Amino acid sequence: MTSSPGSPRRPFVFGLRRVEELDPGAPLPESHPRLVDRIVAEIRTNGPMTFARFMELALYDPEAGYYTSGATGPGRHGDFLTAPEGHPIFGWAVARHLESVWFALDTPSHFVVREHGAGSGALAAGILDGLRRSGSPLLDAIRYQAVDVAPARLDALAERLAAQGLGRHLEPFDAMAAPGAILANELLDAMPIHRVEGAPDGALLERFVTLGGAASLAAGSPGAAGDAGAQFATALGPPSTPALAARLDSEGIRLEPGQPAEICVAVDDWVARATQPLERGELLLIDYGYPAPELYTAARGSTLRAYHRHRVHADPFVAIGRQDLTAHVDLTAVERAATATGLKPLGRTTQARFLDDLDAGELLVALQTDPASTLQSYVEARSALMRMLDPRATGAFAVLAFGRGLPAASRLRGLPASD
Ligand SMILES: C[S@@+](CC[C@H](N)C(=O)[O-])C[C@H]1O[C@@H](n2cnc3c(N)ncnc32)[C@H](O)[C@@H]1O
């Protein structure tokens, strides 16, 4: 195993879910000390750690992981702004899409919408409010189930829905088979990824996390956790699992020597588990990513990014447990995982086209005549929708839909017409 310096800082290329004017330019917080100690101890015991394991601890450690500890997360005052957080118009539009799935299923009296990574409940509130505003009969049939690794977020979500008079549509997560839809917006990008690069002989090398100079300080000693950036470094070695080369081989991808890439092995298992209870209906995924041939180009390089207070950078070894870590999603891998579970692709589109086909513009126009709207709230809605449609912001996000047991001729609003 050879050592190389820690993750290089790459210039950020485009905006995604960041709202530039909200970046306070403040220094990044210190890493969570106990989390750093835990990672150091694990590396000392087991040797260099896969980046997937590092990310699992950084995001999901039960005590100090960025997500599980309920650290700030999404929102205007948080670390990044997702489309549903931007304005409920996003959820209103998704409600139109879900209504067409419900119609395609012949309007079952119970229609479960299970949202994974439901966060603060912005999408849940938007969808339910959208159905209420349009007087949709689906509102009586919908059973909204929110899933999130952060229990505190689920409590806040329940309060949010209750405050909007929508609480009765929320029901506890239930793994029973049911007709409905499984949703996830900006979830797959947070799944732990392995970092790899092409080797000079055409094979694959994995980028492991190892101890850097500062790790010679005893874990837990003053200063050991504070400057975590100097504590961790990247080391190259043979891949930890044959699944990494197998994934790229199956996609016909060959990395150039030194070309970095991220591979999410966990997505296969997630798709299988998440859709297992879906009796009939849809899996709808919205996230940033590309099909493998576009994702794994030398020009694109690594898509690993860290988010803190709307600042985006590429160093995972700072603010550990206090910043979000993400990587672009390999859409080819997601599609293969879905079809492997027997789901049928219903279409792939961009978020901008999806919202446009759902007539999100018409929803905005309706706000102009809504007595509850003010000029300011209208202007805010308009600029939020612009961001959702802007390909430099979230408009280029991918929308992937898969079906199970839907009639062949189903026409689902928002998706490109299938032949
Ligand atoms: C980027 S936020 C997106 C929140 C929400 N979907 C939205 O669009 O506003 C990711 C959310 O997923 C949750 N999360 C992350 N990994 C998860 C997992 N494996 N299962 C369930 N929830 C997860 C996090 O706690 C967080 O609330």
Summarize, please.
The chain has 419 residues and is an alpha+beta fold.
Written account of the structure:
- With 419 residues, the protein is α+β, with helices and mostly antiparallel strands.
- The protein has two domains: 2-65 and 194-263 and 289-327, no CATH class; 83-188 and 334-404, Rossmann fold (3-Layer(aba) Sandwich), CATH 3.40.50.
- The termini are far apart.
- Mean pLDDT is 89; it is low at 2-15 and 216-229.
- It has helices at 33-46, 51-60, 83-86, 89-104, 122-134, 138-141, 151-163, 242-250, 266-275, 292-295, 331-340, 351-357, 360-368, 375-389, and strands at residues 2-4, 49-50, 111-116, 142-147, 178-185, 194-198, 204-211, 232-237, 260-263, 278-287, 289-290, 305-308, 311-313, 324-326, 329-330, 344-350, 398-404.
- The strands form four sheets. Strands 1, 2, 6, 7, 8 and 9 form a six-stranded antiparallel β-sheet that branches. A six-stranded mixed β-sheet has the order 4-3-5-10-17-16, with helices on both faces.
- The longest helix is centred in the N-terminal third of the chain and has 16 residues, at 89-104.
Radius of gyration from CA coordinates: 22 Å
How much of the sequence is in beta strands?
A: 15-25%
Bound molecules: S-adenosylmethionine
Largest sheet: 6 strands, antiparallel
Poorly predicted ranges: 2-15, 216-229
The helix content is 25-40%
Task: Give the structural class.
Answer: alpha+beta
Please identify the top-level CATH class of the largest domain: Alpha Beta
